[in-house]
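Inputs:
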Amino acid sequence: MTARTAFAVIAFAAALIAPFVVHSDFWMGFLITTLLYAYMGMAWNVLGGYAGQVSFGHAIFFGTGAYTSTILHISFGLNPWLGMVAAAVAAGLVGALIGYLSFRYGLRGSYFALITLAFAEVFRILANSFEFTGGGVGLYVPLKIGWWNLQFPSKTGFYYLALALTCLSLAIGAWLENSRFGASLMAIRENESAAEALGVNAFACKLKAIILSGAMMGVGGTFYAQHYLYIDPTIAYGPGVSVEVLLVPIIGGLGTMLGPLLGSAVLHGAGELARRLMGDVPGLDLVFYGVLLIVMVRFLPEGVIGLLRRRHKPGAAHA
Amino acid sequence: MLELTILLPALINGLTLGAVYALVALGLTLIYGVLHIINFAHGSLLMAALYGVFFLNTGLGIDPYAAIVVMVPALFAAGYVLQRSVIGKASHGKDQNVLLVTLGIAIVIENLALALFSADTRTIDTPYAFEMVDLGIAFVPLPRVIAFIAALAVTAVLWFIIARTDLGRAIRAVAKERQGARLVGIDVDHIFAMSFGIGTACLGAAACLLLPTFYVSPGVGHVFVLIAFTVVVLGGMGSFVGALVGGFIIGVTESLGGLLLGESLGQIGIFLIFIAILLLRPTGLFGSRLS
Amino acid sequence: MLEAKGLTKHFGGLVAVADVSFSVPEGKIVALIGPNGAGKTTLFAIIAGFTQPDAGRVMFLGQDITFMAPHRICALGLVRTYQIVQPFGALTVRENIAVGAHLRLKSRKAALAFAEEVARQVGMGDVLDRAAAVLTVAGRKRLELARALATRPKLLLLDEVMAGLNPTEVEEIVQVIRAIRDSGVTILLIEHVMQAVMSLADHAYVLNQGRIIAEGHPHAVAEMPHVIEAYLGHGAAARLRARAGGAA
Ligand SMILES: Nc1ncnc2c1ncn2[C@@H]1O[C@H](COP(=O)(O)OP(=O)(O)OP(=O)(O)O)[C@@H](O)[C@H]1O
Ligand SMILES: [Mg+2]
C-alpha cells in the first residue's frame, strides 16, 4: 500500500514537472495525445470495460462534443469553456438516446457494437451533408489565443488540461471500483439476469453508464477541437477515434482503473516507435494498431495490467 | 420530376446492385449461421479481393469475369487460414473477442491497402463497360446484367453445397449442435474453417462481378461491411433466403434513396433501416436459422 | 405471504405451467417437487418477474407483483436463486455476495462487511477472496444462496440448491437452510433430494406437466399413488403395492 502510494505520488510529481523538462513541441504533443486518450479510454472503459457493453462507435460522442462547442462558439460566440460543458451535456444526451433505444429493446453484445457503429455513420453522413457543420469541408475554430478562450499560447496549457482530465478519469475509475454503482455495472457485465435477480436495475445502470461515458467523450471532443482548431466529419465521427478509444483500455486492461492510462502509454509509445522504424506512411500506424489488437486479444486478454499482476502474484490467476 | 423513365432504371439498377449485396451477405450469413460469430473483417476482405481483381486485370490483362477461377479459391484459402490460425485461436470462447479480433483484421487489411496502394480510387476499363442491354422497359448496362445472373448462379451453387453434399451435411450438423457433431466424429474446427472459407470465397466472386461497374479504394470495405450487416440483420442472421431478399431490399433502397436524396444522404436510409431492424426485430424478417 | 392464482405459461405449443395456484405462508418452508420438465423453474421465473405469464396473478405481501420488473420484486423482499448457477465469474466470492448486499446498503464498505458475514453464515468464510469462476459445484450452489441471502429477503426461492452435492454437503446445506428459516425468512424450495424435502418442508406441492396434482405434508404427499406414478410412470404405484404385498 505504502509502496503504491509512494509510486503514485512520484508519478504525479513527474507529470507535474514534465513541461519544464520536456522542451520539444513534438514530445509535448505526444504527451498531450497520450493523456487525452488515457482520459477518453476511460470514458469507453466505463461502458465497455466495467459494464461490458462494447461500443464500436464512440466517436459519435466525441464528434458531438467537438461540433457542439465549435458551432456554439462560431455562431453564438459562446466561450469554449462553457462550450465544453455544453459538449458534455449534448454528448450525454446522445448517449441517453442511443442507450434508451438499445437497452430498452434488449440489444446486447455484438448487436450493441453494431448499432453504435451505425449511429456513428449516420452522424458522419449528416455532418457531411449539412450547412451548419461546414459539410465535408469541416469547421475552423477561430484563432483567439488566451487561456480564457481555451486556446493556450503554448502546449503547456493543453498539457495541464489533459493531465487534469486524466486525473479526473482516474478518480472516476477509483469511484467505480469502490461504489455501489461500479459494483452493479460489473455484475451486469458478468451476468445481467443474475444481477437483476439481486435487485440491480440493469436498464437504469447501463443508461447512466452510457450517459457518463458519452459526456466524458464529449469533453474530449471539445479538447480536440480547441487544440487542433479544426474538425471535419471524418475526424469527428469516423472510425479512427472509435477504434483508438477501445484499443486503449483493451491493451491496458479492461474494466480497471489504471488500464486506460497504461494502454494509452503503451499504444502511443509503441505507435511512435513503429513510425520511426517503418517511416510515416499513411495507414501504417493503424496497421500496427490492428496487429496489436489481435495480439492482445489472442495472448493477453487481461491487458498489460494482467501481465503486471501475474508478475506480482505468481499463480494468483490460477488460484 | 419523378418520371417512370428515371424511376424504372433506378429500380433495376437497385436490383442488380442488390444481387451482389446478397452475394456478399450470403458469405456473412453462412459464417454467422455456422460459427455464431460476427465477422467484422468481411468488408475489408471484399476490398482486398477487389484489389486482387484490379491487379489481375491491369497487371496481367485477365478479364474480371475470368478472374473468378483465381479469386474464389484464393479467397477461400485466405478465409480458411484466417479462421484456423487467427480467429479461432484468439476467441477464447467469447463472442466479444471474436468481434474485436475481426475488427483488428479489418483495420490491418484496410490500412495495409492504404499504405501500399494509397487512398486513390481505382477503376478498370473493359470493352463491354458501356454496352447496354434492352430489357424492354429500360436499358441496363451489360455488366450489371451479368452480375445479376452470376450472383444468382453463385447463390444456387452455394445452396447446392449446403443442402446436397456431405460437406453441407457436416456444416449443417455443426451449425445446429456443435457438441453433438463433435461426438459423432466431425472435425468441428475443420468445418468452422471450411464455412469461413466458403463464406469468404463468396467475396471472391462478388469482387469479380462488382469491379466492372464499381471502383476500389481502401475504404470501400467499410461501406460494404455495414451494408452486408444490414442485409444480414434485415434478412435474419443465418437465413439464406433472408440474405437474398435483404440484398434486393437494400440495393433498391440505396438506388432509390440516392435518386431522391442525393448520393451521400441516400446511404443514411440504409443505416436507418439497419438501426430500426436491430431495435424492432433483431431476428430479421425471416427468423434466424441456417436453412 | 405469497399467493399465486391461476398461473399459466405457454412456450409455443407446449404448456409449461397450467392454471397453477398455491400459497406460501409466512415463516414456513414450502417445497415444490415434481419430475423433470414439470414446470417448476418456469414457475419461479414467473414469480420473480423474469417471465411474463399468459394468465394468472402473483400476490406478495398483499401487493400484485405479476408484471413487476425483477429488480423491483427483489427490492420488495422476494429473491430467487438459479438452478443453473450464474456466478459473476471474474468477481471474488466477497464481491459476488456484495452485489446482493448493495440492495440494502449503499456504502461499499458496509456491503463488503455484510457480504463477509453472510459468507460465514453459509460456510464460505474461507474462500472469500477466491474468484467465483474457480469454485466447485458445491461452492457455486452456496454462492447462489449467499448472494440471495445478502439481499435480506423476506421470501427466498431456492431452485435445486442441493443438486449435485454429496450426502455430507446436503446435510450441511440442510442445516444452513433451517437456520435461515429460524432467522425469520420464509422459504419456497424446488428440490429433487426427497430426504431433504422430508426433513425441511412444512408443506409440499407436487407439479406434473405444468399442473399441481397434489399437496400436503411431504410424508403424506410422497405416499399418494398418483404422485408416485407421476415420478415413476403409469402403473408404478400398483406394481410397488403388489411387490410390497408379495413381500409381506
Ligand atoms: N424459454 C423456454 N422456451 C421454450 N420452452 C421452455 C423454456 N423454458 C422452459 N421450457 C420448457 O418448459 C418445460 C418446463 O421446464 P422447467 O425448466 O420449468 O422444468 P422443471 O420442472 O424446472 O424441470 P427440472 O426438474 O428438470 O429442472 C420443459 O418442457 C422445458 O423444455
Ligand atoms: Mg428446473
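Residues 40 and 179 of chain B are 25 Å apart (CA to CA). Flag for discussion at group meeting.
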